């Protein structure tokens, strides 16, 4: 079906400019979640080396046996402070955080209401729990309200949504979701993997952007994207919830502690972000430059103001051929087609980073324009 995925091999650090194994040097990379360019930031690397030397390669243990070091506690405190929440708990990934929360929190008497386009890890986490499951249409508040009415018969209701959706670069209507949650006595959970560190005036995320930091109860996010890009995830929220997760969340209880070097990276990334929002502002400026120039060139870019900029093409073959041709011109982008996105909605997803230069952005737009004309995506 043309959907077999092959992996390109990078022979350099992650960054705006890559060296691909087998030849390609000086490739401009537009498909990492390295939104703030911290994956290879010198201070982040130095913090990792220092943590490695001081605390060792790893813990050879889960947290509750002998796998908790002072740096794990410090990072949890820093994350809670960053999000202005009571406490936080670390996981090996956000996939694990999502796999661990619903089962620990919800019983068969409860209900979870999930956006139909939520990330696979939320879907899997919900599958693991015994709560009653409701799926509402993507960002459709009428449908969410109908499902909330239906779910009144259950003991507790939890609305679960991505803050920013990774395939479309669109942002959940959190204000409306929180209003409905208030009206129908529900809790709100958001996955902030594509928001933490750069959305909102201080980069706190979608809840800050939309002015509902005090209304969202639970946040799950990753350390593996904007926050240094190494690995790791977390849940942050009310202390009793975090206490419960430490007792009951299976990916936390039965998996190794985060390696010190990884903790060091994330901790330094948060320090850099809390010092200044200049990096996030630079990313926002580059995003604006790309979106406006591509729109002027005649392309349709999905979403709004988000560094995930899906160039909508429709046809799967066109997306894959154009992405290949872009790489021939030194621009690394990836085409997405069914089943990753709905049939007939194939696209090339471009991701902007704070460390792209204006010239990088302009070269990308220029290459898209040439390739689009060549393959008939532009007149
Ligand atoms: N949630 C969302 C929305 C994601 O995009 C991802 C990563 O692709 C995850 C969760 C999983 O994050 P991690 O890589 O930390 O497991």
Map the helices and strands:
Blueprint (H helix, E strand, L loop, with lengths): L16 E2 L8 E3 L12 H14 L7 H4 L3 H14 L3 E5 L2 H12 L5 E5 L4 H9 L3 E5 L4 H10 L6 E6 L11 H10 L2 E6 L14 H4 L8 E5 L10 E5 L1 H10 L1 H4 L6 H16 L2 H20 L10 E7 L1 H13 L2 E2 L1 E3 L9 E6 L6 H17 L5
Parallel strand pairs: 2-11, 4-5, 4-6, 6-7, 7-8
Antiparallel strand pairs: 1-2, 3-9, 8-9, 10-13, 12-13
Helix pairs in contact: 1-11, 3-11, 4-5, 4-9, 6-7, 12-14
The structural class is alpha/beta
- The proportion of strand residues reads 15-25%
Which CATH-level-2 architecture of the largest domain? 3-Layer(aba) Sandwich
For the residues shown, what is the average pLDDT? 96
Major sheet, described briefly?
7 strands, mixed
Relative helix content: 40-55%
Question: How many structural domains can be distinguished in the coordinates?
Answer: 2
Order of SSEs, N→C? EEHHHEHEHEHEHEHEEHHHHEHEEEH
Question: If strands are numbered along the chain, what order do they take across the biggest sheet?
Answer: 3-9-8-7-6-4-5
Alpha-carbon distance between the termini?
Answer: 28 Å
The geometry reads as globular
What is the CATH top level name of the largest domain?
Answer: Alpha Beta
Tell me the CATH topology of the largest domain: Aspartate Aminotransferase, domain 2
The hetero molecules present are: pyridoxal-5'-phosphate
Number of strands: 13
């Amino acid at each position: 079906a043309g959907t077999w995925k092959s992996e390109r091999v990078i022979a350099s650090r992650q960054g705006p400019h890559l060296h691909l194994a087998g030849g390609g040097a000086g490739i401009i990379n537009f498909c990492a979640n390295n939104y703030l360019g911290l994956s290879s930031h010198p201070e982040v690397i130095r913090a990792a080396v220092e943590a490695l030397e001081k605390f060792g390669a790893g813990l050879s243990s889960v947290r509750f046996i002998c796998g908790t070091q002072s740096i794990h506690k410090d990072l949890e405190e820093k994350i809670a402070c960053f999000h202005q929440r009571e406490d936080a708990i670390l996981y090996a990934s956000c996939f694990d955080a999502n796999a661990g929360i619903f089962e620990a929190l919800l019983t068969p008497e409860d209900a979870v209401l999930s956006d139909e386009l939520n990330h696979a890890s939320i879907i899997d986490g919900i599958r693991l729990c015994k709560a009653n499951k409701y799926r509402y249409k993507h960002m459709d508040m009428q449908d969410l309200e109908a499902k909330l009415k239906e779910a009144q018969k259950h003991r507790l209701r939890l609305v679960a949504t991505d803050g920013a959706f990774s395939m479309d670069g669109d942002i959940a209507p959190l204000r409306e979701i929180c209003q409905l949650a208030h009206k129908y006595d529900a809790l709100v959970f958001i996955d902030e993997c594509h928001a933490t560190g750069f959305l909102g005036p201080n980069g706190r995320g979608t809840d800050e952007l939309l002015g509902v930091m005090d209304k969202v109860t639970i946040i799950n996010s990753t350390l593996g994207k904007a926050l240094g890009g190494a690995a790791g995830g977390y849940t942050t929220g009310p202390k009793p919830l975090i206490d419960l997760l430490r007792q009951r969340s299976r990916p936390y209880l039965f998996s190794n502690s985060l390696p010190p070097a990884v903790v060091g990276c994330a901790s330094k990334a948060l320090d850099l972000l809390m010092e200044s929002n200049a990096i996030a502002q630079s990313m926002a400026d580059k995003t604006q430059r790309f979106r406006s120039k591509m729109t002027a060139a005649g392309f349709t870019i999905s979403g709004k103001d988000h560094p995930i900029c899906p160039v909508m093409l429709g046809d799967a073959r066109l997306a894959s051929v154009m992405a290949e041709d872009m790489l021939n011109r030194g621009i690394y982008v990836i085409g997405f087609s069914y089943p990753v996105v709905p049939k007939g909605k194939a696209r090339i997803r471009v991701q902007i980073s704070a460390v792209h230069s204006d010239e990088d952005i302009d070269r990308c737009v220029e290459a898209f324009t040439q390739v689009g004309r060549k393959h008939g995506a532009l007149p």
